[in-house]
Amino acid sequence: MSPIATSTSTAAPAPTPSAVAPDPTPAGLRLPYKIAVLVFLENAAGEHLLLLRAKAPNLGSWSPIGGKLEIATGESPYECAVRETAEETGFAIATADLHLFALVAEKAYEGETHWLMFLFRCKRPLPGLPADMAEGRFGFFSRAAIEGLKLPETDRAALWPIYDRHRNNFVALRADCAPGQPVKVVLEEITPSPGSTSAPPT
């Protein structure tokens, strides 16, 4: 019962279809929900490995490697990050080599899918540039050079700024990616590492 409702001794009538509250979710946002990881890798010089994607999503844009969890097998995000790193780069890592620095819920990405993204930073340097593959071709870039690349809008607005400021901490956020609208990012939690002075993004 609502806190502001008054109590009566008669039972309320069963709701008729016309009395049922409308679904507040716009029809265009009732989309599939997928779970995936992104893995931020660097070489010994501190340059970032990016993939120029040859397939959707993010066709023609540069982004970190990653992929979807194998949900049917109960794969964890860490297991997925280890597997995707090996499959896409040939670099064998362990879960201990990874730091989970962000959890991002992307709503209506490209108008097709909601995504729950786990963002990892690999603490071991990548020994060399991986070979091209069906998913696209690789390149190493300094952080400054990345700003001049074609990036997914969400990456530019949220992922890279979060990486810059919180890659040693943990942050949770959600991003409204509805087509035709500016990406709206809402910060939900920051967990700083001991002694950290990281401030929330502005």
Query: Remind me, CATH topology?
Result: Nucleoside Triphosphate Pyrophosphohydrolase
How many helical elements? 3
**Gyration radius, in Å:** 21 Å
Which CATH C-level class is it?
A: Alpha Beta
Mean pLDDT: 84
Question: Under the CATH scheme, which architecture would be assigned?
Answer: Alpha-Beta Complex
Shape: globular
Strand order of the largest sheet: 4-1-6-5-8-9
The CATH homologous superfamily corresponds to Nucleoside Triphosphate Pyrophosphohydrolase
- Distance between the terminal alpha carbons, to the nearest Å? 40 Å
H and E string? EEEEHEEEHHEE
Whole-number total of structural domains: 1
Identify low-pLDDT runs: 1-25, 198-202
Number of strands: 9
The structure class reads alpha+beta
The main pleated sheet reads as: 6 strands, mixed
Notes on the protein architecture:
- The chain has 202 residues and is of the alpha+beta class.
- It has one domain: Nucleoside Triphosphate Pyrophosphohydrolase, CATH 3.90.79.
- Helices cover 15% and strands 31% of the residues.
- It has three helices and nine strands, in the order ββββαβββααββ.
- It has a six-stranded mixed sheet with strand order 4-1-6-5-8-9, with helices on both faces. Strands 3-2-7 form a three-stranded antiparallel sheet.
Q: Secondary-structure blueprint of this entry?
A:
Elements: E1 33-40, E2 48-53, E3 62-63, E4 65-68, H1 77-89, E5 98-109, E6 113-122, E7 136-141, H2 143-146, H3 153-166, E8 170-176, E9 184-191
Parallel strand pairs: 1-6, 5-8
Antiparallel strand pairs: 1-4, 2-3, 2-7, 5-6, 8-9
